[in-house]
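Budget justification aside, the reviewers requested a transparent look at the raw inputs and outputs of the sequence design task funded under Objective 1. We therefore reproduce one unedited record. The lines immediately below are the C-alpha cells for a 239-residue chain.
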C-alpha cells in the first residue's frame, strides 16, 4: 500500500470478495521477485513471518517476550518499516502487506539489519485486525501512503473509512495512537474527517500534525516534495 505504484489494470484481480461481502482496498498486482527477495522469503520467512489464522494471536509468543506492539498496515517495500523498527528497539512491530515482493524486500532488510523486533503477516489487513488482534492490545497503528484511489468513483475503496477506523480504535489501548500519512490532499481531508468522527479518538494536533521524527522521509516522498506535492500526517490518540 505505501509508496503506491501506478495503476496496473492488467495485473488486477477480483476487487470484491463475495465471502467477506466487502470491497477490497487493495488489488493484487503481479510483481517480479528479485533473487535476493526470493532468497529472503525462503531463508527468513519461516522465522519472521507469522501465518494468518482466524483467531486471536499471542504476539508476545511470536517475539519471545513482551513489549509495546505497533501494527503497520501496507508497508510497501519495507524501507520505512525497517528504519522505524531499528530506531525503536524497545517496541515490537508487525507489518501487514499482501504483495510478495514487498514481503521479500522487508525480510531482506530484517536480515541485513538483524531486526529481532519485527515480524510480518502477508494477508489482508482488515482480516488480520478483525481476527488476529486482541481488543486494546496495540500501542500504535501506522498507515503510511495507502493507495489513494484518486478517481471519485473509486473513493469507496479507500482503506480509511469509518467502519475500519472504528475497528482499529477498538484494538488500540488507551493512550495508544494511530498515525496516517498521505500525499493526496482530498484523502488527507477524508482521513481528518473520519478519524475526527471516531468518538474514541482525539486529535493530537490542531488539524494535521507535524511529521513525527520517527517517520523517515522516503525516496518516494522526497520526489513528490521536489515536484511541489504536499504530504499530510495525522496522529490521533485513543481516549
Amino acid at each position: 500500500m505505501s509508496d503506491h505504484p501506478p495503476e496496473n489494470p492488467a495485473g488486477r484481480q477480483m476487487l470484491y470478495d463475495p465471502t467477506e461481502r466487502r470491497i477490497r482496498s487493495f488489488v493484487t498486482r503481479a510483481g517480479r521477485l528479485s533473487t535476493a527477495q526470493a532468497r529472503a522469503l525462503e531463508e527468513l520467512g519461516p522465522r519472521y513471518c507469522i501465518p494468518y489464522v482466524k483467531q486471536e494471536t499471542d504476539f508476545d509468543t511470536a517475539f519471545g517476550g513482551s513489549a509495546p506492539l505497533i501494527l503497520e498496515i501496507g508497508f510497501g517495500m519495507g524501507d520505512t518499516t525497517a528504519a522505524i523498527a531499528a530506531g525503536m528497539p524497545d517496541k515490537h512491530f508487525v507489518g501487514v502487506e499482501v504483495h510478495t515482493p514487498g514481503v521479500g524486500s522487508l525480510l531482506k532488510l530484517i536480515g541485513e539489519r538483524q531486526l529481532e523486533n519485527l515480524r510480518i503477516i502477508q494477508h489482508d489487513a482488515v482480516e488480520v485486525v478483525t481476527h488476529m488482534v486482541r481488543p486494546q492490545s496495540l500501542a500504535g497503528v501506522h498507515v503510511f501512503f495507502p493507495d489513494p484511489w484518486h478517481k471519485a468513483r473509486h473513493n469507496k475503496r479507500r482503506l480509511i473509512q469509518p467502519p475500519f477506523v472504528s475497528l482499529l480504535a477498538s484494538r488500540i489501548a488507551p493512550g495508544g495512537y494511530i498515525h496516517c500519512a498521505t500525499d493526496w490532499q482530498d484523502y488527507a481531508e477524508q482521513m481528518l474527517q473520519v478519524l475526527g468522527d471516531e468518538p474514541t479518538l482525539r486529535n493530537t494536533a490542531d488539524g494535521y500534525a507535524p511529521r513525527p521524527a520517527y517517520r523517515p522521509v522516503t525516496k518516494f516522498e522526497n520526489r513528490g516534495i521536489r515536484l511541489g506535492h504536499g504530504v499530510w500526517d495525522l496522529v490521533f490518540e485513543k481516549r
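The chain has one domain: 23-238. The beta strands are 16-17, 22-23, 69-73, 92-96, 118-121, 138-144, 172-182, 201-203, 232-238. Computational costs for records of this kind are itemized in the attached budget.
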